[in-house]
Write a structure and sequence with these properties.
The protein has 224 residues and is mainly alpha-helical. The protein contains 13 helices and no strands. Helix 1 runs parallel beside helix 5, helix 11 packs antiparallel against helix 12 and helix 11 crosses helix 13.
Length: 224
């Protein structure tokens, strides 16, 4: 992988991190890629605003994609990183520091959401929580998980859910999805502890079946 443009030396960690995450989603996620289409588009738009050179963005992204594919195919070879690190030292320390972290830990949809979720999104989820603990599915969240609030019942059918979950009310699904999204994107386990406990209590009161609630939350996480 080789990029001759000197501007890449000025890219900061956040820019490289975004390039690698998008490249990973494009080349490795497979069937799950559709779930991060909207976040990827937003991330790509952000890159364009940072770099202001469409041709360079395309060139760097294509190079990152090639690198991701190469790394994924050679992930079991211990010798892959030393040679890679050597070839990237001329581009600045960002490459050497970020790539082993991003590619060796095998990023998931969840880690992508964490990278691309804004504080405003999580704040909106918290604000949308009603006194009874229920949470309305906010549009930015529904866009990112590719499930709209008005089609939630039909959307969950495609995930092979159990008959019991098929009969779960819309507002309960909205709360469960919002809760799991909030949990996944939280910076720490205790960040939204009160809101999470309140939402889970609401789910238990609505379904009156703790095992079903756990199944609902597990399924919600898979959907996200």
């Amino acid at each position: 992988v080789h990029i001759t443009d000197e501007h890449v030396k000025k890219f900061d960690t956040k820019v490289w991190n975004t390039f690698i995450t998008i490249a990973y989603c494009n080349k490795v996620l497979g069937k799950q890629q559709s779930k991060v289409t909207t976040p990827n588009e937003k991330a790509l738009t952000w890159l364009h605003t940072q770099i202001k050179d469409e041709k360079l963005v395309k060139e760097v992204l294509e190079s990152c994609e090639k690198l991701v594919v190469e790394k994924a195919s050679n992930k079991k070879k211990e010798s892959s990183w030393p040679s890679l690190s050597t070839s990237l030292t001329g581009w600045g320390s960002s490459w050497v520091n970020i790539l082993p972290i991003q590619l060796n830990k095998q990023p998931t949809v969840s880690s992508t959401l964490i990278n691309l979720t804004t504080p405003e999104t999580t704040k909106k989820i918290v604000e949308n929580q009603k006194p009874d603990g229920s949470i309305k599915l906010d549009k930015p969240v529904s866009d990112q998980i590719n499930i709209s609030s008005d089609k939630i019942q039909s959307s969950i059918q495609t995930y092979g859910v159990s008959d019991k979950l098929k009969s779960v009310p819309k507002n309960v699904w909205e709360t469960a999805l919002s809760l799991r999204y909030l949990t996944i994107t939280s910076q720490s386990q205790d960040q939204h502890k009160d809101q999470s406990e309140k939402a889970k209590k609401y789910l238990i009161e609505e379904l009156k079946d703790e095992k079903l609630v756990e199944e609902l939350l597990t399924t919600s996480e898979k959907i996200i």
